[in-house]
Design brief:
- With 217 residues, this protein is an alpha+beta fold.
- It has a single domain, classed as NADH Oxidase (3-Layer(aba) Sandwich).
- It has five helices and nine strands; from the N terminus they run βααββββββααβαβ.
- The strands form two sheets. Strands 1-6-5-4-7-9-8 form a seven-stranded antiparallel β-sheet, with helices on both faces. The chain has a two-stranded antiparallel sheet with strand order 2-3.
- The longest helix is centred in the C-terminal third of the chain and has 26 residues.
- GO terms for molecular function: oxidoreductase activity.
- InterPro entries: Bacteriocin_Proc_Enz, Nitroreductase, Nitroreductase-like.
- This is Nitroreductase.
Length: 217
């Protein structure tokens, strides 16, 4: 049996939001997803891995749009069906994007980003030192106002399945597009919820850092 290897990174415990250098856009329109190109599904599965070293280079608007559509975008316009499954079509998971210019919520129906809080909260999306240096961090939030449609005994398991599917969609897109990502569950839920200006029905449960891989040598 192989011995488990612990990842090497510094732990940051007393982070705070970073003030913005300029005014945030209230709405960011994303280009339609590019359905051509990229690696095949089987090759993407072969390449899927967790990466914790990111270059500071921002994703292009096309890459950002493709990333979010792959995560949980609408792939059946006639029904509003998503790329990620959700029991009974409740879609209790909201995808938020922590960018240098603010925290945005992804609106799958319009394929747009809507400003939630004008603050750079990347460094609050986890305790790892790299989260504030990467160009973006995705935060997956359970909306209990929608999740309460399920019986109490099923809410946590259904939400866990839904968020896992979204995170895997992102991982496979990144593997296909040559981007790096890592899923993270170690975060200060209360502090992050406050920084994102969430209400009491919205709970961040998982984060995923995305960016270009750091090139060394």
């Amino acid at each position: 049996m192989n011995e488990a290897k612990l990842p090497a990174y510094a732990v940051v415990r007393n982070a705070s939001p970073v003030p913005l250098a300029s005014e945030s856009l209230p709405l960011i329109s994303l280009p339609p997803p590019s359905l051509e190109g990229g690696a095949s599904l089987m090759m993407s599965l072969a390449r899927r891995k967790s990466v914790r070293d990111f270059a500071p280079t921002a994703l292009s608007r096309q890459q950002l749009g493709d990333l979010l559509w792959a995560a949980d975008g609408v792939n059946r316009a006639d029904t509003g069906g998503r790329t990620a499954p959700s029991a009974r079509g409740v879609n209790e998971i909201d995808v938020y994007v922590a960018l240098p210019e603010g925290v945005y919520r992804y609106d799958p129906a319009s394929h747009q980003l809507r400003l939630k809080h004008a603050v750079d909260a990347r460094n609050l999306t986890g305790y790892q030192d790299f989260v504030g240096r990467a160009p973006l961090d995705l935060v997956y939030v359970v909306n209990h106002a929608r999740a309460d449609a399920f019986p109490q005994s099923q809410r946590d398991s259904f939400a866990g399945i839904a968020v896992g599917a979204i995170a895997q969609n992102v991982s496979l897109y990144c593997a296909s597009a040559g981007l790096a990502c890592v899923v993270r569950g170690w975060l200060n839920h209360r502090m992050l919820a406050n920084a994102m200006s969430l209400n009491e029905d919205e709970i961040p449960v998982l984060a995923q850092t995305v960016g270009h891989p750091m090139v060394t040598g």
